Amino acid sequence: DAAANKRRYAALRKEGKLPEMVWQHMSYVHFPDPDHYQIPVAYAVGDNCSSKDMTRMDAELRRTNAAVLRAYRENLDGFRDAYWVNSAWQVCSRDGRHVVGRRTLTVDMLKRGGRTADGVVPVVRKWGLMHSPRQKEGFAAKVDTGYLDGTVQIPYGALVPRDLDNVLVAGRALAAEVAATGATRMMPTCFATGQVAGTAAALAVDRRLADVGAVPYGELRGRLEAQGHVME
Question: What is the structure's pLDDT at 78?
Fold first, then answer.
């Protein structure tokens, strides 16, 4: 009974019978095989720019996984004989380093809304949602948040480093304020910015441009739209 298990999970967490570093809520994803589930449950906090800290978090998460499985077996319906089939092969990070871009996606831009002059990827996700290091204090930090409907776009200049002429970035490394990255860090947006970067690089080669920041926006937009890329 999924609903009963979610209620029991909340009670176990409140009673301190689950590890400290687990999500506030219980969730699991059904696989085609009815006996297999994907359970996103544990998290770690640290510096993802440090190999030492990444190794520490990896070991910490594996210990947490084992503790959570024991708690599930002992307390939740249908988990008495549960066992791990697989887990993430290494710790993953939600955010990391960003370039200093010729333009930056800012919280103010997301709040104000409206179209961006050199917009290349629409933003349709919640922004401002930064996970709390301690889930018992709440799921997210108390900052302004909001949902975007695609009227705000990531500017092309956020993919172009300020002090380099022939480099483009895509995905989470683009130029954005910390509180704005919640709207840009998911895989669909990373894929879309990758398509923009690749198309812009090809256009720069075709036009023999030494500076990828000088790619004509109108021509870039036309090529992207011809590829079926959604601009707004």
Answer: 86
